[in-house]
Design goal:
This protein has 380 residues and is an alpha+beta fold. Helices cover 39% and strands 12% of the residues. It contains ten helices and nine strands. The strands form three sheets. The chain has a five-stranded antiparallel sheet, with helices on both faces. It has a two-stranded antiparallel ribbon with strand order 6-9. A two-stranded antiparallel ribbon has the order 7-8. A hairpin with a 2-residue loop joins strand 7 and strand 8. It is globular and about 60 Å long. 45% of the residues are buried.
């Protein structure tokens, strides 16, 4: 699949040793069988509709899955469609729960309350029977996406080949997406995303991550590094957490479809949350640093002037009037959350016989040196 056709969302992180080898297994599903079942499901909603151009993107995510197809019918709301399907339960899922109704609701509300470009959501199917898991269908976004594999920080892709001015425009417009989302979306409307528990939105979010980590390592070797990072968070908890807003969750440029260098569609809302603004900002800054550090480690300069933390903070403050604070806390928290996901993905690879589990489980976390440096206070 070319970037121009990509509406996909990705929880895919470049793994050392897998940058030029086949990606980890993400599904046990048969695409042809999915196509037949999808056609039967659509026929009940639009009798006589035909499905064409069915494709499973080669860059399909490592969490929920995406199907692309064209819908042919005189009453079809759109022609180009993308279907988001809850993760295959037989594929050692990244997350314990896939709430497709939640994602569908978030995207619908973002479309109603903000001018953030989010794909139009069409149908929600909560019954797992038709395709084997709940799913929703949305309009397909046209444009191009900064690649994850090989990462956009590497040479040989459209964003790396862009001029400094073009990348500066993309950076500014991408920060604007966060600013507008946080400012325009009614905070009260985001409270349905709060996890069960007690305490502030940030406390509940961190507690939910602790529970997720416990699920990841249940019956397996725990990560001393991840546990030390949780301890660091407690020792450096913000004195003023700030008000909660709707957080995008997987807030990074790899989840935006661009028309030229401006956002045409903001994707992947499965990690949406009711959190302080800095949770999204920390994730956006850190996920770029992850790719940049990876690229430098492989002997390329990457994009050292792009998405720098101080520039992102300054641009966000200019747009919102809110000066980001406690960003070392929030970037470390992002690196910690990413580490838990990567540990789960690595254990899934081991489950499918793709990797061996080392004696030190921290070795399964590609950015373990970065996270350790953050914990020591020597990264920034």
């Amino acid at each position: 699949m070319t970037p121009a056709a990509s509406p996909t969302t990705r929880q895919q992180h470049a793994e050392e040793g897998h940058l030029t080898t086949p990606r980890p297994r993400t599904s046990t599903r048969d695409p042809e069988e999915l196509g037949r079942r999808l056609t039967a499901w659509l026929d009940r909603r639009l009798p006589g509709a035909t499905v064409s151009g069915l494709a499973v993107p080669g860059s399909n995510g490592m969490s929920s899955e995406t199907l692309l197809f064209d819908l042919d019918h005189p009453d079809a709301p759109v022609r180009g469609c993308a279907l988001r399907l809850a993760a295959d339960p037989a594929a050692y899922t990244v997350f314990p729960v896939y709430d497709m109704a939640r994602q569908h609701r978030v995207m619908r509300l973002v479309g109603e309350h903000t001018d953030v470009p989010v794909p139009r959501v069409l149908w929600l199917e909560e019954d797992p029977e038709p395709l084997g898991a709940p799913f929703f269908v949305m309009a397909r976004a046209e444009g191009r996406v900064p690649p994850d594999v090989m990462p956009y920080t590497y040479e040989g892709n459209w964003l790396h080949a862009a001029t400094d001015a073009e990348r500066a425009l993309l950076e500014a417009e991408s920060v604007s997406v966060l600013a507008r989302l946080h400012d325009q979306f009614p905070a009260k409307e985001a409270e349905f995303l709060l996890p069960d528990g007690v305490g502030s939105p940030l406390r509940r979010h961190v507690d939910a991550q602790r529970a997720y980590y416990a699920w990841v390592v249940d019956g397996l070797a725990p990560s001393p590094l991840i546990e030390s990072a949780f301890d660091w968070l407690e020792a450096h908890w913000p004195a003023d957490e700030g008000d909660a807003v709707l957080g995008w969750g997987d807030a990074r440029i790899g989840n935006i479809v661009y028309d030229g260098f401006t956002p045409a569609a903001v994707l992947d809302w499965e990690m949406a949350a009711c959190v302080p603004r800095e949770v999204d900002l920390g994730w956006a800054v850190y996920l770029h640093r992850f790719f940049q550090d990876l690229t430098v480690g492989f002997g390329q300069p990457g994009l050292p002037g792009f998405l720098k933390r101080d520039a992102v903070e300054r641009r966000y403050a200019e747009l919102t009037g809110h000066t980001p604070r406690d960003m070392e806390f929030h970037t470390l928290y992002a690196a910690l959350r990413h580490a838990i996901v990567m540990l789960r993905i690595a254990y899934r690879q081991a489950h499918f016989g793709e990797v061996e589990v080392p004696a030190d489980p921290d070795g399964l976390i590609l950015h373990h040196a970065t996270l350790a440096a953050m914990v020591r206070g020597s990264y920034w």
